[in-house]
């Protein structure tokens, strides 16, 4: 009997050892929960690898880490991401972007008509909710959550292709100011894409987590999110491992597009001074805009940039048409970082207004802010980094690509939800139901 027990015991011990040793040599389990950043202009998907402890932002077939938040309808296809963005000029009425600005939102009468005038596609008012009118060889309407679902489905497939496992679960981020309805409709978009959402987290919280601020001893974190068209400032307060959004403010008419526009105006004026005629052809203006946009990006790492743009200036604008004489010229100019900063300085200064608002609303001095996190492509602009570090008297956290900070944090949260994270990390956030964002212009 006792011998049997011993044998039984050794068998268990052997099994235990085999399991233990086996575990050491088995490849780590593949992530099953993905992290999704469904942005207004770009989307990304990431996963947390439990083996290495790294976040991987998943690339598309061409190695790009973000896809444009754009869906284009043609007679025989629904195109998503880069393929859709490429159609935006040829198929503008049926190429929908900015859907996130409409998702789950009820608009006051008249407001949607006003919004619609800003887009090349038709925005329809369906009892206060926005829908988009699509006319290919059929005419139909699609909802913002349907647009969202096509983007999420594309990212789900990118992840499945990369990881080679079916994906059914995800964590998704939303702007801190999204109300319950907007959050619900974002979840609905995911459901339409066949994804179960395990948690919805705020974008600023995700950005803070990307820097591991949920694991270290900090109390007050300020997140500056400056994208193409909007500025969002959030003041987070960490209490017992959880993030609470203490105050939010922003400017929904300030971003990278405005800085480019200033540069375009300055460059257009230079063309007029040089040749005596301003550029008027849509195509010329388009080429100038592209050159200026690329110059703006390069000025982040170069003190000056030379642009060369062939133009077809219309000498006689009044007669128009074929008869008017077009002069082909090569416009060439040097744009310096100094000029770029000068012509935008007043816009850059506007960034500090909502920063001061959140500090006032959070009853904090600027010295009470422990960490500053930068999110959004426009925070790469050296002058903006300097403005923020001078204001606070400390360097912001910038080691993570500001376009990928949110997806990185969402992927970490997905790792936690998937159980592949060391248990001591609790994280997350306290819902902020009654908080309103203050907007400055
Ligand atoms: C619409 O386009 C589809 C796909 O090309 C085609 O099969 C269908 O016949 C078209 N319908 C009409 C009414 O043209
Ligand atoms: C329109 O919306 C209101 C509330 O937003 C709702 O009470 C009403 O039933 C809706 N009407 C229709 C026709 O859907
Ligand atoms: C959001 O969804 C939850 C759960 O389905 C539901 O209880 C709640 O009423 C919804 N809220 C709104 C505003 O739609
Ligand atoms: C462009 O802006 C710079 C800096 O403000 C200014 O010095 C220059 O004159 C402007 N160029 C034109 C053509 O207006
Ligand atoms: C910007 O830099 C890239 C390489 O980093 C270069 O290919 C491109 O021509 C530059 N653009 C301008 C306008 O200088
Ligand atoms: C950025 O965040 C890390 C925490 O991950 C912190 O240790 C570091 O000091 C922060 N600040 C800067 C300027 O990098």
TrEMBL record:
Keywords assigned? ATP-binding, Endoplasmic reticulum, Microsome, Nucleotide-binding, Signal
Primary location group: other
**Entry's localization field:** Microsome
Gene Ontology terms for molecular function? ATP binding; ATP-dependent protein folding chaperone
- InterPro entries hit by this protein: ATPase_NBD, Heat_shock_70_CS, Hsp_70_fam, HSPA13
Signal peptide positions are 1-22
Highest taxon, organism lineage? Eukaryota
Among the Pfam families in the record, one is HSP70
Entry function = Has peptide-independent ATPase activity.
Similarity field: Belongs to the heat shock protein 70 family.
Record's PANTHER family? Answer: HEAT SHOCK PROTEIN 70KDA
Q: How does it assemble?
A: Binds UBQLN2.
Q: What is this protein called?
A: Heat shock 70 kDa protein 13
Please name the source species: Takifugu rubripes (Japanese pufferfish)
């Amino acid at each position: 009997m006792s011998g049997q027990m011993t044998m039984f015991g050794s068998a268990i011990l052997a099994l235990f050892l085999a399991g233990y040793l086996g575990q050491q040599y088995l490849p780590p389990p593949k992530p099953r929960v993905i992290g999704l950043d469904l942005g207004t202009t770009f989307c990304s998907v990431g996963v947390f690898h439990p083996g290495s402890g790294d976040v991987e932002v998943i690339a598309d077939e061409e190695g790009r880490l973000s896809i444009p938040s754009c869906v284009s309808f043609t007679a025989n296809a629904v195109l998503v991401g880069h393929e859709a963005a490429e159609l935006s000029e040829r198929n503008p009425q049926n190429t929908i972007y900015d859907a996130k600005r409409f998702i789950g939102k009820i608009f006051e009468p008249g407001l949607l008509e006003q919004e619609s005038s800003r887009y090349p596609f038709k925005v329809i008012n369906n009892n206060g909710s926005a829908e988009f009118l699509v006319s290919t060889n059929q005419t139909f309407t699609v909802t913002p959550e349907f647009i969202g679902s096509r983007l999420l489905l594309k990212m789900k497939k990118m992840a499945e292709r990369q990881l080679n496992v079916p994906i059914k679960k995800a964590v998704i981020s939303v702007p801190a100011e999204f109300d319950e309805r907007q959050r619900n409709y974002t979840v609905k978009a995911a459901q339409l894409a066949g994804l179960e959402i395990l948690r919805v987290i705020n974008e600023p919280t995700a950005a803070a987590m990307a820097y591991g601020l949920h694991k270290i001893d900090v109390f007050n974190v300020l997140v500056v999110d400056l994208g193409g068209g909007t500025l969002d400032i959030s003041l987070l307060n960490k209490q017992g491992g959880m993030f609470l959004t203490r105050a939010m403010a922003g400017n929904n008419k300030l971003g990278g597009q405005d800085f480019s526009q200033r540069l375009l105006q300055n460059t257009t004026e230079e063309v007029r001074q040089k040749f005596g005629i301003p550029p008027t052809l849509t195509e010329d203006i388009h080429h100038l805009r592209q050159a200026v946009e690329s110059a703006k990006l390069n000025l982040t790492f170069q003190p000056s940039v030379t642009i060369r743009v062939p133009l077809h200036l219309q000498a006689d604008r009044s007669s128009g048409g074929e008869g008017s004489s077009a002069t082909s010229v090569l416009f060439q100019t040097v744009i310096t970082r100094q000029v770029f900063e000068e012509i935008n300085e007043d816009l850059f200064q506007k960034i500090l207004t909502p920063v001061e608002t959140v500090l006032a609303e959070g009853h904090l001095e600027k010295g009470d802010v422990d960490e500053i996190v930068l999110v959004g492509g426009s925070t790469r602009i050296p002058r903006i980094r300097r403005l923020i570090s001078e204001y606070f008297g400390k360097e912001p956290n910038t080691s993570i690509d500001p376009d990928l900070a949110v997806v990185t944090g969402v992927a970490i949260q997905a790792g936690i939800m998937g159980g592949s994270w060391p248990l001591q990390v609790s994280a997350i956030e306290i819902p902020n139901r009654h908080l309103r964002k203050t907007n400055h212009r």
